[in-house]
Amino acid sequence: MSTSTSPLLPPAKLPGPNEPCWCGSGTKYKKCHRGEDSQARAPVPASRRVQPGVVSPRRPVPAHIPRPDYAETGRPGPGVLGDPTTRLTRMRRACRAAAEVLQVTGAAAQPGITTDALDALAHEEYIRRGGYPSTLGYHGFPKSLCTSVNEVILHGIPDSRALEDGDIVNLDITIYLDGMHGDCSATFPVGKIDAASEQLLRVTRECLMLGIEAVRPGLPINVIGRAIEAHAKRHGYGVVNAYCGHGIGEVFHRSPQVCHAFDPHATDIIEEGMFFTIEPMLTMGAIHHRDWDDGWTVVTADGRRSAQFEHTIFVTRDGAEILTQV
Description:
- Helix 2 (87-107) runs antiparallel to helix 3 and helix 4 packs antiparallel against helix 5.
- The two termini are 35 Å apart.
- Strand 11 (289-291) and strand 12 form a beta hairpin.
- By secondary structure, the protein is α+β, with helices and mostly antiparallel strands.
- The protein has one domain (82-322): Creatinase/methionine aminopeptidase superfamily (Creatine Amidinohydrolase, Alpha-Beta Complex).
- The chain has helices at residues 34-40, 87-107, 115-128, 195-213, 222-234, and strands spanning 132-133, 146-149, 152-154, 168-177, 180-189, 238-239, 245-247, 254-258, 275-278, 281-283, 289-291, 298-300, 306-308, 311-315, 320-322.
- Strands 1, 2, 4 and 5 form a 4-stranded antiparallel beta sheet that branches.
């Protein structure tokens, strides 16, 4: 019988040069892990960063599939309001469908597959369920999901780049079904990933769940960011604050905005009956970002990895119901 142990990872706050090393060796930090830690936290060279591939033409959606108001023009309007008495039922249906598509597409995220092939798979899964890919055409976005690899924080456009062993990839899935948008995402390991990436994924998922657990009617919405940021900082991760969660339903993006870091000015009160997403984005390094020329892809400024997990929730009398799960 063999056993395995998880490798030690450096803490969020590193010791001083002449203090004992964090690894427990008893040696001064400067003579033990200091050099290795500095190298690990250095910006990633441009040659090792994700490069854009070729984007294929927009995939068609059959005429019988109901469309959101922006499908042809790219400009979202007020949305089409359905029967308010069935609103929660319809939202549950859309969110469950999104979770199913995420599950199927995530299982295919293996070394050698292109992100464009993942887009094709997700596209067919939306249609098979009678839904429209919410991202397709939204403000001109050309694809049916977002595929964000390694240092891409969000809004990565699926293209001809093949996933490689050791990559991580976030798949952001949103379906328009029964007049409602269901939105979720998860970051998947591609093949065998290193221990640092495993920890990043684990802590980001924990942050999502802690943010959901913080939801209570009557509290300011910044309790969500407070819970997420505190846990992320304990593990030495940055929390992206330039992008946030959002209200959702008949409209893809609406109020309230849900910050994932504590914002003392975010004092909107959480109300029973709200639908919104919680989708923390954590980084191994700096939280600063830069934008690609495609107008969508957002990457970490230092090239270090980022992860994201997302659920759509419904605010109940006692807390939150997660809608985007199978």
